[in-house]
């Protein structure tokens, strides 16, 4: 392993010179097996690796994350996929391992945002996972190791230039971290808070029942938020993030953004969407974009313009606003985490519309009573964790 790596440039091409290194002069905890990862690639790699490592520790299951611009587009643990999810994630043609299940869910929850992602895997990359990564548009992957055949598959990606990073899983960073802004050095203790079920013990709503599967989903949401640019809110269902709202200045905008993503995730499972007849030569990204347009209120304009002929073998019947509304009413059992307190009950109102029944948030707002009252209105169980998870 090298002591430093020179990079082509920093965040932008004009930001030179650029490199990564250890302040104490020791070797880097990573080895670049292929490609030339850039500054942002490494930011994604190190943030996403921490996320999946903590997910694995908290749940005992293989975990994966799909990162873009230093925030997760998706994160998940390796529970088995339903036939419907296999279809909407386009993985119904391959036998999946637990790790591949995790990646399929992390990548599939928000496929538009995951376009060109950086992948993190908690376990040694196996062949099924490598096959899934190989057919998606992606910048790179970080994992504690790679099976030989899996590595051979990944080496063929991007004309042999795919970024492949191997990280030492036993590496322990310095407990004090620093960074510079405008020539000024900032120093703080690392956020080494352990996220476990003890954080969910203070349930302050009338409904105090949070079943084990929801507790696991709440842990996934909180760990995901720990590595998401703040402000942030995360919706989780059945072991995977289905909507992440990152980097918004307003909490309600986080909740709306993440809720809209969760709604799109669920609308993709509507029978009309599953029955769409695409032309055989449509590329994956074009198919993803087309599905999003079909789900949106803009689809009537697409029909009027005749653009549908570019994508479908036959003219699809529109998915009406009333049909979407009725379908979304059947979304239930969603868990929601927030990296800081909800200041008003409007966040709960929006979360309820996307099937949220369980919430974990720090608490501490002067309007906690209003937030609790709104939860009670919808029989939502909410725990106050007492901890904030800002990440910048």
Structure report:
This protein has 392 residues and is α/β, with parallel strands linked by helices. The protein folds into 3 domains: 4-172, 3-Layer(aba) Sandwich (Cytidine Deaminase, domain 2), CATH 3.40.140; 195-267 and 328-384, AICAR transformylase, duplication domain (Cytidine Deaminase, domain 2, 3-Layer(aba) Sandwich), CATH 3.40.140; 277-317. It has 13 helices and 15 strands. Strand 14, helix 13 and strand 15 form a beta-alpha-beta unit.
Tally the helices: 13
- CATH architecture type of the largest domain: 3-Layer(aba) Sandwich
The CATH topology of the largest domain turns out to be Cytidine Deaminase, domain 2
Biggest sheet, in brief?
6 strands, mixed
Which features does this protein show?
392 residues, alpha/beta, Cytidine Deaminase, domain 2, 3 domains, 6-stranded mixed beta sheet, 5-stranded mixed beta sheet
Layout of strands and helices, then pairs:
Elements lengths: L3 E4 L10 E4 L8 E5 L4 H21 L3 E6 L2 E7 L5 H6 L9 H11 L8 E5 L5 H8 L3 E6 L4 H7 L8 E5 L8 E6 L2 E6 L22 H15 L5 E6 L2 E7 L4 H17 L3 H4 L9 H12 L3 H7 L15 H8 L5 E5 L7 H8 L2 E6 L6 H10 L3 E4 L8
Parallel strand pairs: 6-7, 7-8, 13-14, 14-15
Antiparallel strand pairs: 1-2, 3-8, 4-5, 4-6, 9-10, 11-12, 11-13
Helix pairs in contact: 1-6, 3-4, 4-5, 7-12
């Amino acid at each position: 392993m090298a002591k430093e790596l020179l990079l082509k440039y920093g965040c932008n091409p004009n930001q030179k010179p650029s490199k990564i290194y250890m302040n104490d002069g020791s070797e880097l905890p990573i080895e670049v097996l292929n490609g030339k990862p850039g500054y942002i690639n490494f930011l994604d790699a190190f943030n996403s690796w921490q996320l999946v490592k903590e997910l694995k520790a908290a749940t005992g299951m293989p975990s994966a994350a799909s990162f873009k611009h230093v925030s997760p587009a998706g994160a998940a643990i390796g529970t088995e996929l339903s036939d419907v999810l296999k279809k909407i994630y386009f993985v119904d043609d391959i036998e999946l391992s637990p790790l591949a299940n995790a990646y399929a869910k992390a990548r599939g929850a928000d496929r538009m945002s995951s376009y060109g992602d950086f992948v993190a895997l908690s376990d040694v990359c196996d062949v099924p996972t490598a096959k899934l990564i190989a057919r998606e548009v992606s910048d790179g992957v970080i994992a504690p190791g790679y099976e030989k055949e899996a590595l051979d598959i990944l080496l063929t990606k991007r004309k042999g230039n795919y970024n492949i990073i191997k990280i030492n899983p036993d590496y322990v960073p310095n407990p004090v971290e620093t960074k510079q802004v405008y020539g000024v050095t900032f120093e703080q203790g690392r956020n080494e808070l352990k996220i476990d079920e003890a954080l969910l013990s203070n349930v302050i709503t009338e409904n105090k029942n949070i079943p084990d599967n929801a507790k696991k989903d709440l842990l996934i949401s909180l760990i995901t938020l720990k590595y998401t640019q703040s402000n942030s809110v995360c919706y989780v269902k059945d072991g995977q993030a289905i909507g992440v709202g990152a980097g918004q200045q307003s909490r309600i905008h986080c909740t709306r953004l993440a809720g809209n993503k969760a709604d799109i995730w669920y609308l993709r499972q509507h029978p009309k969407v599953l029955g769409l007849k695409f032309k055989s030569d449509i590329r994956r990204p074009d198919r993803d974009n087309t599905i999003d347009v079909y789900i949106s209120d803009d689809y009537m304009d697409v029909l009027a313009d005749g653009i549908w002929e570019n994508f479908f073998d036959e003219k699809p019947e529109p998915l009406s606003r009333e049909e979407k509304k009725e379908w979304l009413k059947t979304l239930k059992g969603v868990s929601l985490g927030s990296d800081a307190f909800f200041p008003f009950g409007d966040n709960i109102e929006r979360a309820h519309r996307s099937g949220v029944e369980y919430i974990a948030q720090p608490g501490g707002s002067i309007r906690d009573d209003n937030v609790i009252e709104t939860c009670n209105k919808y029989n939502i169980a909410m725990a106050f964790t007492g901890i904030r998870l800002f990440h910048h």
